[in-house]
Amino acid sequence: MSTTASPSTAPAPPAAPTPLRRPRLLAAACGVVAIVAFLAVAELGALLLGGAGSPLVAVGSAVIDLAPPAAKNVMVGLFGTGDKVALFVLMAVITVAVSAGAGVLERARPPFGALVFAVGGALALFAVTTRSGSGTWDGAPTVLGVAAAVVVLRVLLQKLRRWEAAAAVPSASPRPAATERRVFLVWGVATAAAAVVVGGASRIGTASLQAAAAARRAIRLPAAASRETAVPAGASLDVDGVTPYVTPNADFYRIDTALRVPSIDPADWRLRIHGAVDREVELTWDELLALPLEEHMATLSCVSNEVGGDLIGNALWLGYPIRSLLARAGVHDDADMVLSRSIDGFSAGTPLDVLQDEDTAALLAVGMNGDPLPPEHGFPVRMVVPGLFGYVSATKWVTELEVTRFADAQGYWTPRGWSERGPVKLESRIDTPRGGASLPAGEPVAIAGVAWHPHTGVKSVQVRIDDGAWQDAELADSVSADTWRQWVHRWTPSAGSHRIEVRATSADGQVQTSVQRPPAPNGATGWHTVQVSAG
Ligand SMILES: Nc1nc2c(c(=O)[nH]1)N[C@H]1C(S)=C(S)[C@@H](COP(=O)(O)O)O[C@H]1N2
Ligand SMILES: [Mo]
């Protein structure tokens, strides 16, 4: 490199070449910013995936698993119980050094620096996707992170090169070196700052998510002080393809507006009951668990469920009657609604008389089928009200009950085109055979499904084939009117195409309507119909 001294007599020469003194150091810094961007994007992705897929965690674990025993012994010998911290620091130092090197390499021989990140990313991806229990999307944060790192590296180095060029041959550059320098520094510092903030916040978020998950695992729910009779053996028909009477938690439908499942440490959970009450009540998790809890089975369904749809499930809920809490608060006479609010901003307006009814097991629930509520089903506490659609009653992650009036307040979905009140409608569904099934002609087949009218109960179910006569199906038992009932009708198809329809009659004599209505504004109606062929 050659430097041309500028004549000292000239007044402030504008374009004197003053080559960068430490271009390689700056390129190394670009590499470091790129790795920070990688971590930030990957950690944000992991947070959005609910705490899964963090390359930081996966690579750390992989290194611990792969390290030969001798290395482990050296680490433990050197650092004692601080061996994990020491390992982490060592990994961080190596990662930063390699990234800095990649920056220098990318400046000298593009795209080899970027390639270093790609290779490192591939190794991290391998660590992430081969972890036990890794899911389909767990690799996504790493892939996005590598993309971010490569973009950041290339963009910053492009700015650095412009600065270098402007400094070396000022006459060939459209902008003065000082401007290029500022552009480079602003980009570098801004990117680094954004990455540190996003990455740090994401890591903290993931850590709190995992703390809540750990708290959930540690919970031992108390036994119910009162429980209804055990599930009768006759509640489950022995028919292939029929929906199980009790829906396993893992198969239970999930509907909510939450982009990310809220994570609440039960130790931090509070329920506040306020509004039109004599005295505000505040309840902690420990206080709730110390109350005599009830166990009650109830079928929960979504107003958005289409005829024949699967946004419905039946579970055993453990919780405390909301009516008892309302009594404790002393509800004012002019109130007619309870607006329950969730930590995520969702709210539901539930008729006060339903919540106060002695015969309705409206619960502040903590347990689902014997386990603490799964996070996506409202951990630590949710509401369940037999007979009402979820959107007006089943607030998950509930933190607040405001006693108010329908005239004064609205639940989340009401201004969005759904009815103020949402009792569940009488419905029935054919689970088997599936629409479009081809059956062997002349061989008996079980037509079976479920029927529900929670809190009213189902009295009978009928099946009709090809506009024939309605025939009574065999009904399974149920724990109570609050749950669905399985049904089965045995039939031997003749060759050809057939239409199967189902309708239920509720315990109060109402026959399920054939009128087809869409889910909005207060629940779909119509008979579920499937078309099959036999040959
Ligand atoms: N916090 C919160 N609670 C909520 C919702 C929601 O969006 N946010 N959706 C409701 C609706 S529309 C239904 S149908 C039920 C579904 O409960 P599940 O996901 O446990 O099946 O939750 C209700 N509780
Ligand atoms: Mo819903």
From TrEMBL:
Residues 506-525 are annotated as: Disordered. Keywords: Membrane, Transmembrane, Transmembrane helix. Residues 259-413 form the Oxidoreductase molybdopterin-binding domain. Residues 507-516 have a biased composition (Polar residues). The keyword Membrane applies. The chain crosses the membrane at residues 25-49, 85-105, 112-133, 139-157, 183-201. InterPro entries: Ig_E-set, Mopterin_OxRdtase_euk, OxRdtase_Mopterin-bd_dom, OxRdtase_Mopterin-bd_sf. This is Molybdopterin-dependent oxidoreductase.
